[in-house]
Amino acid sequence: MKWAGTAVAVCLGMSGFVVSPDARAHPHGWIDLSVRVITDDQGMVSGLHQTWRMDPFYSLVVFEELQQVENASLEEGLDQLGKEIRDNLAAQHYLTEVSINGEHQALGEVSEYTAMERDGRLTFMFILPLEAPQPLTDAMLSYQVFDPTYYIEVVHEEEGGQPRDDALILHGEPVCELSILPADPDPELVMQAALLDKDESGEPGLGRYFAETGQVDCR
Question: What Pfam families does its record include (predicted)?
């Protein structure tokens, strides 16, 4: 069992994502996201600890297929799946962009990750390091996590229609203001996304305009 190597297949590639024949709007699946920004006592940020919870329907499909793999336990299947997710995400820069004071940050390679079943959802957790730690004191870090084709929507964990308090947290120094800014796409782009058929993906880059922005303002 292998996941295909496209951006779409990062989360939906094992069986494909089945939607109603009448479904015409984008996206076709979603991921609930939470982020912990990792800093040390000197205020140096080293990376983002991300937790992705795949949507319930896709999670069910994954677990059913893993259980059908001969001579392998669910735990073994999840271990293999986690490695394949990591490898596919690496080719897509982990679907993450990070900047500090508006300057794009190079990312390192993910070596710490795990895939698990949690409350009936496939959950993928990983630490995405910056290529080099950067000072966060008197600076602002921002990030976006998105599928460039917008086949999959990535949104921070919500409660009552608003991001949860633990959807973005900071452990360490300095003391900063945390916020999650909603996407504000142009109406023409919204129409473009809605017109895509159930088996279509948008042009690369479309997902950026629908991405929430996490901000850690330490200025």
Answer: DUF1007
